[in-house]
Amino acid sequence: MLIWLILTPIIASALIGLCKAPARATALISASITLLLGIWAVVDFDTNAACWQEAFGQTLQFTLAPPMSKVMLILTILVTFATVLGTNAPDKAKASWFNSALLISAGATGAFLSDNIISFFAFHELALIPTFVMIGAYGRGDKRSIAWRATVYLGAASMILLTGLIAIGSQLGYTFTEMKAAVEAGATIAHPEIIAGFLIIGFGTLVSLFPFHSWAAPAYASAPTPVAMMHAGVLKKFGLFGLFMFQPILESGFRYWNTTLLVLLVCNVIWVGYVTVQQRRLDLLLGNSSVMHMGYIFLAFAALVSSGSAALNPWAVQGAALLMLAHGLSIALLFLLCGQIEEQTGTLEINSLGGLGGKLPRMAFVFGLAGMASIGLPGLANFAGEFLVFFSGFAGFNGGFGAVQIATILCLWGLVIGAVYMLRAYRNIFQGDLSNASSYATSISVYGVTAGYFLVACLIAFGFVPGLILQFFTR
Amino acid sequence: MIEIENTWLLLFLPLAVAACNWFFFGKKGNIASLVSTLACLVTLIISIGLLGKTGEESFTWISLGNAFNLSIGFILDDLSTRMMLIVTGIGFLVHVFSLAYMKDDESKARFFTGLSLFMFSMTGIVLANNIAMTFIFWELVGLSSYLLIGHWYKKNTAADAAKKAFITNRVGDFGFLIGILTLWALSGTLDFSMMAIPAETCETLVNITLLCLFCGAVGKSAQFPLHVWLPDAMEGPTPVSALIHAATMVAAGAYMMVRVQTSLTVGAFPELTADVISIVGAITAIIAAFMATQQNDIKRVLAYSTLSQLGYMVMALGLLSGESAMYHLYTHAWFKALLFLGAGAIIFACHHEQDIWKMGGLFKRMKITSFCFLMGTLALIAVPFTSGFFSKEMILEAALHKHPALFWIGVGVATLTTFYMMRVILVVFFGKERSKNAEHAHEVGPTMTLPLIVLAVLSIISGYAFMSDNLVPFNGFSAPEFHFGLPFYASMGALALGIIAAVIFYAGSPEKDKLSNNWVSRALQNRLYIDAFYDKVLIRGVQGIGAAIIDCLDQFLIGGVIVGGIARLVAAIGGLLRKLQSGSILAYTILFGLGMIAVVFFTVFYSCNN
User: Fold this and answer.
1) Whole-angstrom distance, CA of residue B539 vs CA of residue B4
2) Spatial contact of A252 and A309, defined as CB atoms under 8 Å apart
3) In chain A, which among 126-145 make CB contacts under 8 A with chain B?
């Protein structure tokens, strides 16, 4: 059954691209099917685990057994649904608009469900192609050089990552299951720290770890709305997902790099945080904020590595999973709204907007919630994730502040930075005097509004009941 | 009667009402306002029923499958139940007052939704049985305060003030969170009832933990150096100022510290922590009192006065006299809510004029309001046998025993308090009308005067033992016996001095302030340039220039040179391709992708077949 989660969007995309099926309707049907099927899969998994693991030969093995896979699947299907529901495609590019969302969704799902690390890798590459193509063809600004830069960064990262994957796969086997079993049986790995280095740089660049983050913000800012939503919301989590999947396998290797990683992730939060404060365009601001927030999830990873295992530091794994989901939902929502603001006013320069709240009160409400979610307001999903991540940083406390605790404290300052740029943006876009650009705003399409409310509802649901997600880890 | 299970209703009813108002009554302001007010009445009744009850209940909010639980629960003791009475009592009166005050506001439903959301959040802080829950609701009161200060969001000043309040509080929360995490790491629990710092912990760490927790209180209770948001918060509607920015939310900092002191026991507070806390309180009290003497906006005078009184409470906390801090919190809540609502009535009657130098002679036009305002003033300036007198006396007593220097600062603050409040009274209520608005003012309706009368009565009588022993939110509180001593004589001196000075300068209807137009006055009006320093030096200077430099480095050094160098190497290889190909980016990316997939599948087949 799992294969249909991947095939449905691919078939839908073929229908749209080759048979000229009505784009939005087809995409929406596909996204609804995967949404329902995906929810059924995670709910039914406990009773029929065998039903949700399948193999097609040696290279394609899908499983929903790891809790993190379930969380990522939920993220993918929710964001895909909101994307195809909410984005407004220009007439000349309807097919590519929806196709890109569907293909990224198929690739991401494939990667998150793969047990085989090579197909895990290959599906991610598949999902990257629409990203490059869409930025190159329909991006904002200097699209050629931005697409080129992203391609080079991510291509190079993929090659480094692949080297690492093969290095470990050739020693322990090419599936996560095999590798875990081998490690539990006491297999030793040659050069774990070198392999871990490859994985950290490879995965790290894909998740825009400092200092390999320069591709991310311009790419998100330039990307058409569906690509920005799908890539920042879903696909980017691939790297973090990979790190958490490999942590139990390469424990000693990651430990070797942990201090370095702590420094880098603090830079993600503080350095990129101040870069974000400096942004004057909403799209760049959101792109950078997304880079910044990755620092918190890396913090959870570093805390996990420092503690040694998920059993010793459950805060890290569960907090990270929750935060990845929450961040995906909130950044997708923010990019959706960003696209709508541009459609309505023709600009994303924060200082030329203003007073939009009086014209579009519902959008002001949804944007307010999304912004508050992203700066960690309790009651919305991000807070629960961040809070657990901060606890994870202090889980290894023994009588004094160690490196992880100091990094955690520094990352806490990110809460202030986040409030500074997000409230400043909100104040200048939605409050105050009505600006010229804002006066053009009329109303958002019913699709856009529904998609916005859908994501808000998800953020509130997971924020009020984080157990919906955390239960996967405790059963 | 009222069982402790009803506490859940007390907590969640306001949330339900806020949600209901927002989704169903968004355009029906009248219904929304009535629903909110009724809900508040219900919570008031429950709070009265819960007085004297004790107990604890909770449910797990987050469980990770190990011993760790984040729970939402309540703890009932004298501290929390009596605090609830203050919150719901003033909350209800403010709701009633707002029915009239916000009658013609175009976003009345949004206003009352915000008030209900605030009631929910504040109830959460008061009832919280663990410090993580305190933090959750701490953030939520921050949100409701943000929404209500920014109620008139189209006004630039209001939007800026809301943002400033939220961000300043976040700075405090930064410390608060560090404190919570360290406390959790030290004591292994988040629950107040089980919390303890192990005896062998080094004192520095205890100091760090407690002072970090105190940072949260510094933000929320607007203590120096994070006091800057509170005067600006006066941009919100006046009932909001009364409820949130005078009586309840700003007192949450003191409440939280007392809760921590009760849980860890007072003995757990090292001397350094205690001294820092009391000095911060004393500094806030004195500088705010000075600033209040030269404010011309009636709400701003009261705002600085609130700062100064909060300073008293925090000073008392540092003197490890939690009971006197809570005593003052309790009396202050009634009389300051009264003063703000009174100011609201005056502003309403004067057609939204807030400058005291455009008022005057209001005593004969608004007898009830003026009389109530006067009662509040008497309590605030601690005229003997009003409520404020008893609580201030208790704080001064505590100061005299521990730190005589702080005692004399306290007396100085009392002198200034009397001076600036008498200034307001003389200028606003007596003399000639100074503007058309003042000439046309007339008494407000009963929906507004009734809450004033209730609060005026409470401002006078709430300090007496028959009330305070049963209502001051402190476990086992009993009012000290009154006796003549240095604190009494000193505060009488302060009172007399303040009144005489005010009469000298402001009696006889002066047209403008005789003390203005010199550098001292300008410095005080400009808040001792602290706000300007933050804005120009910290925000625009350090943050602005720092962010610009970082942004520049990020683009050119990291994006351009270091990582870009690698990219250029790859681009050079790409350049070879360019010669072969059309130069279209689309072609490159597709080729690149296909090539990558080819590599992958080659590897897969190669590796798996071996």
Assistant:
1) 48
2) no
3) 126, 128-129, 132-133, 136-137, 143-144
A285 neighbors A425 (Cβ within 8 angstroms): yes
| Phi-psi region at B52: left, alpha or beta (left = phi > 0; alpha = psi -120 to 50) | left
Inter-chain CB proximity A271 and B547 less than 8 Å: no
Burial group, residue B207, by CB count within 10 angstroms (0-12, 13-18, 19+): middle
pLDDT tens sequence across B14-61: 999 999 998 888 888 889 999 999 999 999 999 999 998 898 999 999
Picking from A149, A275, A424, the nearest residue to B163 by CB comes out as A424
The verdict on a CB contact (< 8 Å) between B154 and A433 is yes
Residue A316: pLDDT band by 50, 70, 90 thresholds? very high
Residue B535: burial class (beta carbons within 10 Å; 0-12, 13-18, 19+): middle
Phi-psi region of A103 (alpha: psi -120 to 50; beta: other; left: phi over 0): alpha
Which residues, numbered 434 to 463 in chain A, qualify as contacts with chain B under a Cβ-Cβ cut-off of 8 Å? 434
Domain ranges of chain A: 267-475
Contact partners, residue A299, CB within 8 Å, separation at least 6: A262, A265, A269, A389, A392, A393, A407, A408, A411
Rounded to 5 degrees, φ, ψ at B197 are -95, 125
> Chain B: residue nearest A268 by CA?
B554
Among the partner-chain residues B64, B153, B160, the one whose CB lies closest to the CB of A314 is: B64
Alpha-carbon A424 to chain mean position:
24
Name the 3-class secondary structure at A246.
Answer: helix
Please say whether the beta carbons of A80 and A105 come within 8 A: yes
Single out the residue of B32, B36, B137 nearest to residue B95, CA to CA: B36
Tokens 């990291």 sit at which residue? B558
Each residue of B513-541: pLDDT tens digit? 888 888 888 888 888 888 888 888 888 88
Per the CB < 8 A criterion, the answer to whether B294 and B516 are in contact is yes
Closest-CA distance, A406 to chain B, in angstroms, reads: 10
- In this prediction the ipTM stands at 0.94
**A162 vs B603: CB contact, 8 Å cut-off?**
yes
Distances (CA, A) of B543 to A272, A362, A374, B161, B548: 13, 32, 21, 19, 8
- Which of B137, B204, B589 is best to mutate for the A interface (most A CBs within 10 A)? B589
**Amino acid at the residue A416:** V
Angle at A417 between CA A411 and CA A423, to 5 degrees: 145
Q: At B206, list the tokens.
A: 């205890």
CA separation (Å) from B116 to A3, B91, B148?
48, 9, 11
